[in-house]
Amino acid sequence: MQQTVVDHIEQVAEDVVSLVLRGATGPLAPWEPGAHIDVTLPNWLTRQYSLCGDPADRESYRVAVRHDRLSRGGSEYIHRFLRQGRALDVSLPRNHFPLLPAPEYLFLAGGIGITPILPMLRAAAASDVPASLVYLGQSVASMPFVDDLRASFGDRVRIVATRRQGRPDFASVASALSPGAVVYACGPGPMLAAAEAAFPSGRLYAERFRPAPRSFAPNTAFEAVCARSGRTVPVPADESLLDALTHAGFPVAAGCREGVCGSCEVAVLDGEPEHRDDIGAPAGGCTPVCPAPCPRGSSWTCDQAASGPRLNARNDMLPKVRTPDSRQMIRLEVRRNTRLTPTFSTITLVGPELEHLKPMGFDQMVRLFFPREGQDGLRMPKLSSEAWMAELLLLPKSRRPWVRNFTIRRTRPELGEVDIEFALHGDTPAATWARRARPGDPAGIFDMGMSYLPPAHAEWQLLAGDESAVPAILAILEHAPASLVAEVFLEVPGTADIRTDITAPEGVRVRWLARDGADVLPGGPTLDAIRTSSLRPGRFYTWVAGEAGLATGLRRHLVRDRGVPKPDIAFFGYWRHGRSSPG
């Protein structure tokens, strides 16, 4: 990784900004036209962007980012939250789209696809190689770098606003090419499909935003053997290897998750995977794992990510949960619904079957079953083994209840009561049900155990979470021994959500962090506060939960910047910003 600082942010077209990232510790790694970098954002999402600056400039990188209306969080964060002076980690440049020597070039670019093409055009001009560009976009205002291109290359650049002019006839463009000329194209799928139909395959080199549609043999289940750990990971027919490895606890870097960027490549030691990406068969026996590779055989062996973290999962790095010796489905009903703050509400459940629940304290988790809107009752699985989920999925959706994970806030066995605390954000099924729940409404729970398992060697503890983890952390503090020494960071949406109902040992210091603003990214205040804190000396145990970026971001900071051993960190992503809300 390389450390950079955002030196300049500039609007270069409608919904497109240009970022200049200056090296924070010295010259940056060299690159060639066509290269891209992974950019790790402060919300700990990693995205790939083509380098569009000058390869001779070792002091800074330049990228351009279009605001994707269907953003998974990357472009949205850059356009809404990123500011000048922010530190960003970037990878070493990678190049799956290199500019090969040729007597003449034709460049085709569509929209943000101009970014890898721009340095190629400059390189050709610097080498006195004939080159021209056809640049397409819906409107001139939506096309970045138009003025720079016109000023630098004049009539060698043809600007086509397709909304007004329509798409050019690539066949006529192809007929005018001289022998030996090659075509480089980057842009949306329809543009590339038209280019592929017009230009001979041996003369066209393309980079895509999405994998090209192709037909493959039906998926089959297989096994991946991870050589360093010796573990075998089963990969179902309907799941990608990336998902299977992630679910098994292997830390694989992943960016596009579609087979385009190459950040999730792993080394193949044995077996022959079927390449379903747009990178082809990379050198060195590597394959991306985000498509669903159907290997030619029942298993293959992988070693490590070629560009990302090693595929060397260790059992002591994985989240641990202590489950009860015996458990069963417990039917209950609502006794009370108590509003605590604008965000928090407690629902008290009661029922004779509660005698089957074994209170464990701390962050004891349960699966909470509650009816969907319009259902006339609650249908719960009858099985109390791990097969309960399969039984549930056999129910038609119209009869299937909602199931969500929650922490038990308190139990009162003498009254046959249990409290479940909710963070009421958004219109998620659980938050909607919690707002409407009335005495007598049916509900059910299934005990899942606890994840708070501090090791004996910990001299103190670091507990952190957003509103979705506040109930668990408050329960941990209530059950903690009087000798506990801890630093606690609790993030809530607003100052009105800061709680006073805290019972904690004297050695615990609690800091409340209120976002108080729509433009403050969930998890950001907690990450910033801990990064700038002088933590206590001595070996400590960390328990962090909440928004996925907060959980993974804090773990990464502690491991990378503070040297905390990975086994000393328990981290849990309860929700993801932009996809769902807590509660």
Walkthrough of the structure:
This protein has helices at 74-80, 114-126, 146-153, 162-165, 170-175, 189-198, 241-247, 388-393, 429-436, 470-479, 524-531, 548-562; strands at residues 2-13, 16-23, 36-40, 46-50, 60-66, 87-90, 105-110, 131-137, 157-161, 182-187, 204-208, 222-226, 231-235, 265-270, 286-288, 299-305, 330-339, 344-350, 365-370, 402-412, 417-423, 442-449, 460-465, 486-492, 508-514, 540-547, 569-575. The protein has 583 residues and is an alpha/beta fold. It folds into 5 domains: 2-90, Beta Barrel (Elongation Factor Tu (Ef-tu), domain 3), CATH 2.40.30.10; 105-208, Nucleotide-binding domain of ferredoxin-NADP reductase (FNR) module (Rossmann fold, 3-Layer(aba) Sandwich); 222-317, Ubiquitin-like (UB roll), CATH 3.10.20.30; 330-449, Translation factors (Elongation Factor Tu (Ef-tu), domain 3, Beta Barrel), CATH 2.40.30.10; 460-575, Nucleotide-binding domain of ferredoxin-NADP reductase (FNR) module (Rossmann fold). It is elongated and about 90 Å long. The two termini are 36 Å apart.
